[in-house]
């Protein structure tokens, strides 16, 4: 017990709590935030962090999936095809890395993979907002509670998500979600979230099992991570209605981008290439500042392509709200 009450354990618990709050606030996947946070804290090798994060995710995602299943929100046929594609690749992913990567370079290889996965997650989240913007401007698409399943593309989406999660722990709540939005635009937001949660449980379990067999499980990371993240998630979900979602979601895109670049830098990726566990702090800060300034401008021009003013309604939070319906006043507003 004394081994658990250490500065490292407290830092993991604190990181888990803070990331849990963000997950509860936004519903975004924790792996994209938790994994880089633990790596930068220096609590263990990248493989140990990924394994612990996946194991913790299997715990709290199971609870969320049970709630959605009881309320009847998941589309089980859709979840089935995703699982068929994702579970085998989640099991295989860690072994592929171990086969093709030099054991001495495994840590840097995983950091590279996670860095690119974070940038991919940030891009898919931005794409998701744009798709929602087009949907709202088009008056929405006709809701389909039980759309016709497209087995092959759904299976391929599951396979890509499974491979990504198995290697990096990033992707179950971002990459798969955006693919489902594109494949099944009529699926309601509640069905979308419920289906994603149900398919994510066997996916992260398979990825966790594969990583545990390959790298072992560091209980010193897992236990404080679970203790911190579960109450954090509950608190975040409770205070979500009172917090400005637009600011938080923009902040997450900035953080994901900076974390991705920092991990690529830390791993010695040639175009950045600090390497030897070092980074270029000014470069990372510059990337963050650039995204912070440019992102709202780019978003404003995208709004104009849809016949909207650069700023105003619908806000990012409204685009993510399944109950939002644009009114004439909201669509014509030109103030912030």
UniProtKB/TrEMBL annotation:
The keyword Cytoplasm does not apply. It comes from the Bacteria. It holds the Pfam family TauE. It is found in: Cell membrane; Membrane. Keywords: Cell membrane, Membrane, Transmembrane, Transmembrane helix. GO terms for cellular component: plasma membrane. It is a multi-pass membrane protein. InterPro entries: TM_pro_TauE-like, TSUP/Inactive_protease-like. The chain crosses the membrane at residues 7-25, 37-60, 81-97, 109-131, 152-183, 203-227, 247-264, 284-302. Belongs to the 4-toluene sulfonate uptake permease (TSUP) (TC 2.A.102) family. This is Probable membrane transporter protein. It comes from Nocardioides piscis.
